[in-house]
Design brief:
Number of helices: 5
Distance between the termini: 52 Å
Shape: globular
Structural class: mainly beta
Largest sheet: 22 strands, antiparallel, barrel
Length: about 625
Amino acid sequence: MSKKYYQTAISAVVVGLLSSPVYAGDPLKIVISPSRVAQDVVEVGSSVVLLQGDELRERGVEYVEDALQQIPSLIVSSQGSRGSQVQIRARGNEANHILVLIDGMRVSNASTGEYDFANLSMASVESIEVLFGPQSTLYGSDAMAGVINITTKKGREGFGGNVAVKLGELGTQSVSARVSGANQGFHYALTAEDFSTDGISSGAEKNGNSEKDPFEKQSVNLKAGFDSKRFSTSLILSQNDSEFAFDGSDAVTAVAVDETVNKQLVESTHMAWLLEWPLMDGRFNNQIQVSNISNDYDIRSFFFGANSDFNTQTERDTLEYRGNFQINSDNSLQFGFESIEESLGTQSISAFGTSNFAGNVDQSGLYLNWLHKYQALDIALGARAGDHEEFGSNSTYRLTASYRLSDQIRLKAAHGTAYKAPSLQELFDTSFGGNPNLQPEESESSEIGVEYDSGDYFLGLTFFEQDTDELIRFSGVFPTGSNANVGEARSQGLELTANKVWGDFELNTSLSKTRATETVNGVRSQRIRVPEWSANILANYHYDHGRIWLQALFRDERRDIQFTFPSQDVTLDSYTLWNLGASYRMKNQLTVSARVENLTDEDYEEVFSFGTRGRTAIVSADWAF
């Protein structure tokens, strides 16, 4: 372990333990994702983190990927400039092992089963919940490592909105506008955004790359509906279009190199309709949600001496029923049904010719969850039965408990199983080793923790462990090999959180230690891009009209892969990033803010041979009306 780590980690813990107040500043934190109904976080046995959109935007956080950086158990990795692929790994798992929901919609790419956070800004985000641990019982496939549940803004009584303008280095500029309101039960919120940046070279500058890779994005989001005592209904529409230039890789060394031809165009559409109606004086609540997610990726590149064009179109249609029955003050049941149909179509035009591929799959599931209170004890017990068109039936379960030893001390624990269905690409795409006989990846996980909350000080410690079987990997030699269930993985770790407030000064510190290994075809190795140690320190000073804040992010060294023939392991160096910012609210409802990212101009990598932004300044103005 490096000396640099010890200095950062020890300072995080010591400073956190010596400062002074409340758990995230709120005596009552309501979360939805652990049981799909509103709960106080002290009733939840699983680990859950709640981030508020307004607070993040006030600190100048523009993209969800940047917001998630402050949670050490989530490792964010990007392949270069803004707009390049962004992956999130939770507690040492793979990027397609965490389910991402936006207003209840599954938004992962049906082709890979993974969500790319590159295009997701903070403009319309109300809150972000991150629920850790196996969550397939309530959420089905993909939730092996947890759930990231994002809720967008809803119109409130009256009329209001805002206009925000941001300018920064690297030719970065952004304009967003939102109007929202509610009257006599009707509500609406409409957000539009335009973002562009000249970017940096996606290939690391230290390898001689200098050509910038620009990114631009336009998005429109609408949430509208009607609420009454008898029923509520809402319609959610989202359209995102983006264009991003990316670099290639050297055919011999596999190092990222400048390429002027490569370009990725993405069109993404999300649509959902939600109907909710209560029965039995509100004791029996029902929800039906129908959603459609479509993604169109057009990737143009220079491949093996010729221009190539690779187009992927994916679609997901989901029908879901969710019920909640309050038996009495101490017992309730949550139950539901889900039916998902996914489809994938690709066309590839390259020096090797033209190829087309199409595939689809149906899956469904039923779940039942019991919430029980007995004095200071809260229990959740759930089970799920599912069916998949290719591999057949499967089942999962989950048990969580929270016990308040006193007004200040709480014990929590969780145990459960989860699964990840093979993606459409893994099942059917023969150019990538498609194998329709694949079985789902399966995991079993446990965690136990203790929290101390005195009202002016919070300290939490959690230990977790997860075992995963039937890992899907490419087996054999290209092009005759195929995907197969040939691996297993194990992750163990601890998470420490210390939060305090002392007058106008607030300090939040968190530290994560993760040991993550996998064994594939009998060969054991560290999981890629997962540091053993990671830490976050966020200090806020609040004054009458705004705040000043300082953030430190530490990531330990990580294993990555250099994809030569044969491939070889490389080690990415540890790094510490410092971010500094301030905001000022004027009397005319105008807020101005400034933010400097990577204050010390640290040279680092999140993915082997890909670049990262150096010291970058951004200023913004936000007028609310």
